[in-house]
What does this fold into?
Amino acid sequence: MAPVFALLTALAATAAAETIHGVVIFTRHGDRTAKFYPTYSLTNLGAEQVYQSGSYYRDRYLSNSSAYKVSGISSDQIQPAQVYASVPDQLTLYQTSLYFLQGFYPPLGSVNSQLSIEKLTNGTDTQDPLNGYQFVQIHALSTSDPNSIYLKGADDCPAWTSASTSYRSSPEYLDTLNSTASFYKQFEDLLNPILGAGNVTYKQAYNIFDLLNVASIHNSSISSRIDAAALNQTRYLANQWESGMNFNNTQPMRAIGGQTFIQNVLTQMNATVASKGTKQKFSLLTGSYNTFLSFFGLTNLTSTDPTFLGIPNYAGNMVFEMYSDANNASFPANPNDDLKVRFMMRNGSDAGTPLTNYPLWGEGNLNVTYGTFVNKMSNLAVKTPASWCAKCGSLQTFCAAANVTAANSGDASAAGSTGSGNASSGSTGLSNAAAGGIGAGVTLAVVGLLAGLAFLLFGRKRKATAAAPVAHERKGSGSESSSV
Ligand SMILES: *[C@@H]1O[C@H](CO)[C@@H](O)[C@H](O)[C@H]1NC(C)=O
Ligand SMILES: *[C@@H]1O[C@H](CO)[C@@H](O)[C@H](O)[C@H]1NC(C)=O
Ligand SMILES: *[C@@H]1O[C@H](CO)[C@@H](O)[C@H](O)[C@H]1NC(C)=O
Ligand SMILES: *[C@@H]1O[C@H](CO)[C@@H](O)[C@H](O)[C@H]1NC(C)=O
Ligand SMILES: *[C@@H]1O[C@H](CO)[C@@H](O)[C@H](O)[C@H]1NC(C)=O
Ligand SMILES: *[C@@H]1O[C@H](CO)[C@@H](O)[C@H](O)[C@H]1NC(C)=O
It folds into this structure.
């Protein structure tokens, strides 16, 4: 681990004089029941892991004694304008966001009893329930919300499904399928009843690892039958399978989830920068391991360090810090040149797990200016729902509106420019693009209505040119079940 040690040393060396202005974290969920069963959810252990993770970042970013305290952020009592959280509307991920934020801003009575009290005019002290439980607004985005693409861009994306499925006809896949057939046989007794005879092969590499891993942690009636070395080998093969599915240099669609996620990071950072560091100082995004893997491939982390080919541990995080190089620095007047950005990874939540700084894009720099970060990342990002819809061939209802908008503007990626957006509040998360798409959709609907009215009034049939949102009704394969 010499390189990691060197990186940590480099990080420690810069810790002396700097001021953090904003942070974006992307987190995986904690320990859960097996994904194979549709009713999976966070376990007690998993809830505790993400709570501990939130608590770790509380120590780093909120504590007055921390060298990394975010400038001007409220230490104990959450200020809603300073914190943004969004999550796919899925049970396990929502639980993750909620427990993380409870670790980040615990019940106020437990950290600052004075602040937790409100006095009524008649002299009575009042406190929120549960010892001053702190309410954090979490934006839960369903897959019918255009903004959900920025958290889970591979879901409901037929082009991702076919690109990733093509991994299963690659020579690499077929070789591994053959060479591991006898290895997987040892699990048939345990797993045939669940996966079905003939399915305990590399073809089910993720499910096999996940079922065994969950059982090894939770099912005492069979855990003794799961050999640790064999389990580790199933993890290794699941990593290979998932990284094959979610990134290939020559097939960008496998990494679509990483491309939209990059835009999400840029959007949240921009909310901090646009407010000159006064708002949205901390953003928590929650999502799936496949988004991590796509991002790792797109940003050359995988070529820098092969550990990035592996699925991150439960409650693992990617962290983007914006900072300047002096103590108690005010927000830089010229953020493009004077605000710095660094990428870090914390691979789990156990005490002692380091937060490690890594270079992006295979370039060896542990930090870059905000301007450089935005330029480099913009080249990798899918920036609008219209663009995502076109690339994915998605059947999502919002794609009907987005596609018409794109057709009108003559440029799929230009659709966002018509939107008025909401960047100043930084709290709705609705991008300019989404606002533009919806706005244009509504406009078209109104045009359609007027045309209909004209027909009624004048008895003249009009040819609809911009046609009411043409539903691109293709029945296609839905996406694979979501990775979480
Ligand atoms: C003060 O007002 C609150 C809310 O109306 C009430 O519940 C409480 O009983 C009052 N206390 C006294 C001492 O009057
Ligand atoms: C990546 O894509 C190339 C070109 O389509 C293909 O030859 C190769 O087998 C793929 N690799 C994997 C691991 O799917
Ligand atoms: C093997 O898995 C596939 C896909 O999940 C399923 O459709 C099939 O029924 C399974 N086979 C058996 C024998 O259960
Ligand atoms: C433990 O595993 C056995 C064998 O697969 C299964 O029958 C049982 O339902 C499992 N128990 C729990 C609590 O998951
Ligand atoms: C995180 O830990 C897992 C499990 O040990 C490993 O497979 C993966 O490579 C690690 N990732 C990073 C970035 O350290
Ligand atoms: C980064 O990754 C991209 C895509 O995989 C590749 O084309 C490029 O050569 C890599 N750059 C470096 C410096 O490794």
